[in-house]
Design brief:
The chain is of the alpha/beta class. The chain is about 35% helix and about 25% strand. It has a single domain (about 5-110, about 155-300), classed as Acetylglutamate kinase-like (Carbamate kinase, 3-Layer(aba) Sandwich), CATH 3.40.1160.
Length: about 300
């Protein structure tokens, strides 16, 4: 029976609207190679992706926030899903493979009482000018680049389209879903309602992998492994780590909240819920070597 992998791709690996970076195209080619390598090794694949650069660009075109944050998250799901689908579909056709792509606009239930809504901390959009800071009805925080809007980053509770995604996988679909962590929604008496917020893509990917009973969670990112003492002369890569070792390293401050922290939390959560699964972090293009333990970092329960 085929194994199932959830492959989580960072938004920085994809070109932002309005430009085609040579480096981004190279990374995207390595991502496509990873997906096809998995398929040819008889893995089924669900792809999730970030949207930080893309949604930030679009928010800059909507300075008054008239569209609503959740609509921009939905828009980037369609934009990036379209891009990934065309690239992958072309390769699958060329290789005469039977799989087809399916892009699923994904909604994710969050708790309306999540503390993130009380204390929003996730920067989104461009640096704001003084007039916008004074007039905008937003939560704004000072970042290293200047004042920016901040929104909630609530924990994902449930993927609303989970059953549909599962059925598409059973039909040999390579499913592209959960873009930008999914569109956060809450239940109201009148029905589901989108809310302003950004769900962490890696935490959503971890939840999705657990709920799909996936055999592997693969976080594909810009670093080649989880490092001890990252950014110092003593930095060293780890090929294998346990959840307990990650927890100790996290408590010691090895993983900043804005970069590696959520990835480590996502890998650990998947290992706890799916102890027989493979939890791997690697660079695009290294997936098969990482699954063999030769590259990247493998996390175990």
């Amino acid at each position: 029976m085929s194994k199932l992998a959830v492959y989580a791709l960072g938004g920085n690996a994809l070109e932002a609207p309005g430009g085609h970076s040579h480096d981004a195209l190279e990374v995207l080619a390595r991502v496509m190679s990873d997906i096809v390598d998995l398929l040819e090794m008889d893995w089924r694949v669900v792809i999730t992706h970030g949207n930080g650069p893309q949604v930030g660009h679009l928010l800059g075109l909507d300075p008054d926030g008239a569209m609503g944050m959740e609509r921009w998250v939905a828009a980037t799901q369609g934009m990036i899903g379209h891009q990934l689908s065309l690239q992958l579909q072309t390769i699958l056709h060329r290789r005469r493979r039977p799989e087809r792509t399916a892009v699923v606009l994904t909604h994710v239930e969050v708790d309306p009482d999540d503390e993130g809504f009380t204390w929003p901390t996730k920067p989104v959009g461009p640096v704001l000018d003084a007039q916008t800071v004074m007039s905008a009805d937003w939560d704004i925080a000072q970042t290293v680049h200047g004042p920016r809007r901040v929104v909630a980053s609530p924990a994902p509770l449930r993927v609303m389209e989970l059953d549909l995604i599962r059925q598409l996988v059973d039909l040999q679909g390579v499913v592209i879903c959960g873009g930008g962590g999914g569109v956060p929604v809450i239940h109201r008496e009148e029905g589901l309602q989108g809310v302003a917020g950004v769900i962490d893509k890696d935490l959503l990917s971890s939840l999705l992998a657990s709920d799909l009973e996936a055999d592997a969670l693969i976080i594909s990112t810009g670093v080649d492994a989880i490092y001890s003492d990252f950014g110092t002369p003593q930095a060293s890569p780890n090929r294998r780590l346990s959840v307990d070792e990650l927890k100790s390293m996290q408590q010691a401050g090895h993983f900043p909240a804005g970069s590696m922290g959520p990835k480590v939390s996502a890998l650990s959560a998947y290992c706890v819920s799916s102890p027989e699964g493979r939890a791997v972090l690697c660079q695009p293009g290294d997936v098969l070597a990482a699954l063999r333990g030769e590259r990247g970092t493998t996390v175990s329960a």
